[in-house]
Amino acid sequence: MEIFADVVVDINIKSVDRVFLYRVPEHLKGRVAAGSRVTVPFGKGNRELGGIVVAVSDQKDESVAAPKDILSVSGDLPPASAQLIRLAGWMRSRYGCTMVQALKTVMPVRKPVKERVQVNYYLTDEAAARQVYEKIKGSKRERARARMLGAMLDSGDGSISRETAAGILRISSSTIRSLLSAGLIREESRQIVRNPSGLLPSRWGRVQLNPEQTEAVDQIMASWDRMQETVRQGGRASSRDMVHLLYGVTGSGKTEVYMELMDRVLSQGRQVIMLIPEISLTLQTVTRFYERFGDRIAVMNSRLSAGERYDQYMKARRGQASIMIGPRSALFTSFEDLGLIIIDEEHEPAYKSESSPKYLARDAAIQRAKLAGAMVVLGSATPSLSSYYKARTGAYSLHRLTTRARQGSLLPGVDVVDLREEFKRKNMSPISGPLREAMDQCLAQGSQIMLFINRRGFAGFVSCRSCGYVFKCRHCDVSMTIHGDGILRCHYCGSEQRMPKVCPSCGSPYIAGFGMGTEKLETLVKKEFPKARVLRLDRDTASGKGEMDAILEKFSEGQADILIGTQMIVKGHDFNRVSLVGIIAADLSMFSGSYLSSERTFQLLTQAAGRAGRGSRPGRVIIQTYRPDEACIRFAAAQDYEAFYEQEIRFRQAMHYPPVSQMLMISIESRSDQEAAQAGAGIRGCIDREIKRQREDGEQGLIQVMGPSRAGIRKVRDIYRYVIYVKNDSRQSAFSIKNAVEAFADRRSGDFRHTYIGTDLDPYQLF
Ligand code: ADP
Ligand code: ZN
Ligand code: ZN
User: Fold this and answer.
1) How confident is the model at residue 200 (pLDDT cuts 50, 70, 90)?
2) What is the reported pTM?
3) Is the CB of residue 607 below 6 angstroms from any atom belonging to ligand 1?
4) How many CA atoms lie within 13 A of 293 on its CB side?
């Protein structure tokens, strides 16, 4: 019998974006399946190209006279399941990418680095190990060794797999080597897969869910039962049963709800994918899941090496793990019986892919759930406007957790400090009077403080206090930041210039760094609070593997009084000794001036405030701002999401912004300003023609084109940037406009050689 395969060839060109039929030669029979990576001869010259098999059949498509033979198949990689290939098909039609791009996205593990065998580690002598563990467990320098031994001692049979050590516990291979050479553990390869249900006893004991948590779990599980019933009867589950939004204030116990749901779904033999933004995927977070679910967990994160990622992938694929925890790409774990996808902090911009296909994890998750008969639970203290809108209009189910879960923990009180008043009082310090008082009080009581400043890098921008002139980079349309050494530096391109003595615009000598960066703030805080122990967390102090964990762990162990940091300190951490959070400059993220900026500012402020008072001491938050009347700041201070939502959704409705309407963003980037402007004008013409065509076809909804205009940051690294926005009531119409623009870009690529034209149907980061 002859076997044929439909192959998508690995060239990213729309004109060949379809399947090609190939014959599976005798010697490859049985090795080619949907998802296999193959090499095939292509075109007239029979150029050898890579490809991905999307279907295999013994029926020949009669329209192809003589299909060529597949040349080879890369045998090591397990083929993706049919479900993921269908998901790729959906991505292609929803986001307008090529099938190859979509397939590569749903098959994120490229290829095994080398043949890896399964490795387990065993304690050689439990008593000896326990002795060593007791000795080193408090030591700072032997943290990793202690973590490894502790987990092995807890595991029941004194063993641990290499996947768990690397993925969950973040143990480096050098730590393992040192334990091996000390004779404390031994290594065994090619062990039979261990019973994945061998659970760890929870070290903290399980919490008793409170009534709100219980109700959320019960309602979601009732939906689950309804879904199963509907499917049994051959029907399609309703989207309200399938998608749930868990809106719970910071510290309300969402994670406990997730874990309970996971437990229930797992007990029915189904698997779970849990998405957590990379930045929150800390050891602290993962350990919490590990303590409850033990070795059934696999973890993906970008710190893992290619080989370690492959191990995690295989752990899930072999059925050895039934929970995958990871960032966006963990969504494509090939579980055969997926029952539940959880997206924690669902509002996070990190869930949006910025390369083609520019998918949103939330939408892709819902699609995958549809294919798998699974449920999706979205969780956040500050839901994206879009998700909340869908929950309010009935597309998703909504569940609320309104109070903090831990006994005695209350939402913090928030005060707003008007920085203009501070300036009038001649207080030039970034720390206002009220914040300083609160810090003194806090330090005297021995509780911890977090200072949040939304500016990565070193210092704020430099401007003239007399006329407002801002120093900008020559190559980029961004302000320069000042460094400790008196040099102005651009964070986009790295170029430098010496700080001048007087303002180039008005000659005033009053030029100074405005606002603050983390580093400058650190210096200042150390000077003003000489007795306090200060830690700083930003991309400069934690760039490499494990550094972020180390800093967070130090702080959570109480080895510092003050933690200064960027976004990295806001996201989902649970420090129970923090009683004061200071937000140094709430205005910083509002400067972006897009329709998304007030949503982002609200989220950031609320999340930052949510770090305070998670333990038993009452928490306090001080928000410093130049614009205390701004709605997003007022509502964040009042911690009133609903009020913020009501106001913001009315604005979006009035202005036809998402989630009420569609928004297509077209970005134009070019070395030549003139060429970019020409391309922009050409695209505008093309859009207008397409709209005319649609109108003639009877399209009646709103379509509004803005631009081309210069982008918010008009130039980066001497590349000029323009943008066109198209607001649209209909996704179909927006999609057709996107296609027309892409066709135009292809057709005119010879004329606009120096220009890159990008399109995005769900923009998250505005240009
Ligand atoms: P969220 O994910 O909403 O921020 P967490 O699940 O991290 O909240 O819970 C915050 C804190 O409250 C954690 O320390 C957690 O152990 C505790 N907690 C959660 N649920 C309960 C409960 N029902 N009873 C007691 N403590 C709880
Ligand atoms: Zn000036
Ligand atoms: Zn620059």
Assistant:
1) very low
2) 0.84
3) no
4) 31
Ligand 2 centroid to 433 CA: how many Å? Answer: 28
d(CA 451, CA 453): 7
Looking at the CA of 719, name the nearest ligand. 3
Q: How far is the CA of 253 from the centre of ligand 1 (A)?
A: 4
Closest CA to 300 of 312, 315, 285: 312
What pLDDT digit, counting tens, does each position of 724-751 carry? 999 999 999 999 999 999 999 989 888 9
Q: What is the pLDDT of residues 16-68, one digit of tens each?
A: 778 888 999 988 888 888 878 888 998 888 888 888 888 888 877 677 778 89
Q: Does ligand 1 come within 6 angstroms of the Cβ of 255?
A: yes
Q: What angle do CA 575, 576, 582 make, to 5 degrees?
A: 65
pLDDT at 493: 79
Query: Burial level of 239, CB count in 10 A (0-12/13-18/19+)?
Result: middle
Tell me the two tokens of residue 279: 């930045």
Amino acid letter, 123: L
* Residues recorded for the chain: 767
What value does the mean pLDDT take over residues 283-293?
86
**Tokens found for residue 202:** 């929870």
> Edge-to-edge, what's the strand order for the sheet holding 323-326?
297-299, 323-326, 271-275, 338-344, 375-380, 243-248, 397-401
Does the pLDDT at position 714 exceed 70? Answer: yes
Q: Is 405 in the pocket of ligand 1 (CB under 6 A)?
A: yes
The type of residue at 213 is: Q
The closest ligand to the CA of 379 turns out to be 1
* pLDDT over threshold 60, residue 584: yes
| pLDDT at residue 424, rounded to an integer | 81
Closest residue (by CA) to atom 20 of ligand 1?
Answer: 253
How far apart are the C-alpha atoms of 87 and 273, rounded to whole Å?
Answer: 16
CA distances from 135 to 150, 157, 486 (A): 12, 22, 48
Question: Per residue, what are the HEC states of 483-541?
Answer: CCCCEEECCCCCCEEECCCCCCCCCCCCEEECCCCHHHHHHHHHHHCCCCCEEEECCCC
pLDDT of amino acid 196: 36
Q: What is the per-residue pLDDT for 154? A: 80
- Ion ligand 2 neighbours, Cβ < 5 Å: 464, 466-467, 469, 503, 505-506, 508
C-beta of 285 in contact with ligand 1 (< 6 A): no
Looking from the CA of residue 572, the nearest atom of ligand 1 is 4
Identity at 246, one-letter amino acid code: L
Query: What digits encode the pLDDT tens for the residues 238-269?
Result: 999 999 999 999 889 999 999 999 999 999 99
Q: Exposure pattern of 19-49 as b/e (b: 16+ CB <10 Å)?
A: bbbbbbeeebeeebbbbbbbbbebeeeeeeb
For the record, the structure tokens of 649 come out as 């959704």
CA distance 328 to 140: 32
Nearest CA-CA partner of 536 in 666, 449, 446, 598 = 449
Sign of the Cα pseudo-torsion (430, 436, 438, 441, in order): positive
Q: Is 256 in the pocket of ligand 1 (CB under 6 A)?
A: yes
Average pLDDT score over residue span 591-597: 69
- 448 vs 196, which has greater pLDDT? 448
Consecutive H or E run containing 21: strand 19-24
The CA-CA-CA angle for residues 439, 440, 446, to 5°, reads 85
Residue nearest to atom 17 of ligand 1 (CA): 406
Share of the chain above pLDDT 90, in %: 38
